[in-house]
Design goal:
Strand content: 15-25%
CATH topology of the largest domain: Aspartate Aminotransferase, domain 2
Largest sheet: 7 strands, mixed
Strand order of the largest sheet: 4-12-11-10-7-5-6
Number of helices: 13
Low-confidence stretches: none
Structural class: alpha/beta
Length: about 425
Amino acid sequence: MLSHKEIIELRKNLLSPSLSLSYAEPLHIVKGHAQYLFDANGNRYLDAVNNIQHVGHCHPKVAEAAKKQYDLLNTNTRYLDETIVRYAQALTSHLPDGLDVCFFTNSGSESNDLALRLARIATQSEETIVLDGAYHGHVSSLIDISPYKHNGKGGSGPPSYVHTVPMPDTFRGKYRGESASDRYLNELKNILSKIRKEDKKVSAFMVESIMGCGGQLILPQNFLKQSFKLVRNAGGLCIADEVQIGFGRVGTNFWGFETSGVIPDIVTMGKSMGNGHPLSAVVTTKKIADKFNNGMEYFNSFGGNPVSCAVGNAVLNVIKEEGMQHNALEVGSYLLNELKSLQSQHSIIGDVRGMGLFIGIELIRDIKNLQPADTEATMIINQMKDQKILLSTDGPDHNVIKIKPPMIFNRENANELILKLSDVLGNIDYEK
């Protein structure tokens, strides 16, 4: 086995320097099981941040499904195959009626890029509306619509056809208080008016029902429902990016958009969908899919292959059989309450928010000016790593500690996280 130092040196020589590593002292992880990761020295870490391994690292039923299908057949979608139609049937059974046409891809970025193509062909426009702080993927088309990237380091801002609504953050955002939602909606109205005055049409509004890179942000009540109404009245389509939050993670519902009482025109999904296997999808209506069928074939070499579909179906079965959505609701609610109790003891915690097992802790230095405690957030996640608990930071100011563990995360894990976080917070010095 290569040493820690050897791997770092090889990364420096062979991999892009733009690839980041977590923590000041990177971990050499060699094994995963359930909600735990193990390093080369045999240390066990509680994984409280990896929402890709949705039903747990190396779940035996998912691994077995992949092996069984791989031993039998793996090819592309140009042949008749039972696995893809059965999986499409199972997947769409979890979605509202009308969302029943599937496109299978290999990543959330692929899915979001395809969703843009669907919307632009259906509307004959590329005018796209997004929320500030949003991240929708790493390909060029998505960097263009991801303020989290194009307004950050190395970014060059959005193209002219991308319109940005201020992030609907009622804690530290542009508008706060009871009227905040209406004021953010007014920003959207102004954008729609501007597009109309320029004799252009709206293509799409792409949005996460709960913002991930935006800082695990819960949108204001009725914001999404009213936004969808405004966009549709202007002739645009509504795309729900469920890549981070779908498949029961929010606890109360299978999809994040359901918590706002809306039905999108297009839904994108990925990450947790394959439990670490590269599997993603776009689901839309027959009307939109028919418009996309304009003579140009859609083909994806690996999207919808039998192994991927077998894996995806196994993940759906495990979620149901092991009651993981209910666990997300129960354990997530408990953890949220415990974190709010911790907030009352530590002034650095400005806000605790989330749904199910998708939680953010926003750190500030002063309650009056709400200065983000970004340095302190980094210190905390590194010290928590030393305590054998893995967390990460997010948000535009990187001052939000995010908690989005595998769905097998239990109350005992929650108690361990709270206990160690309390100890770490007690040792953090910060400037007021």
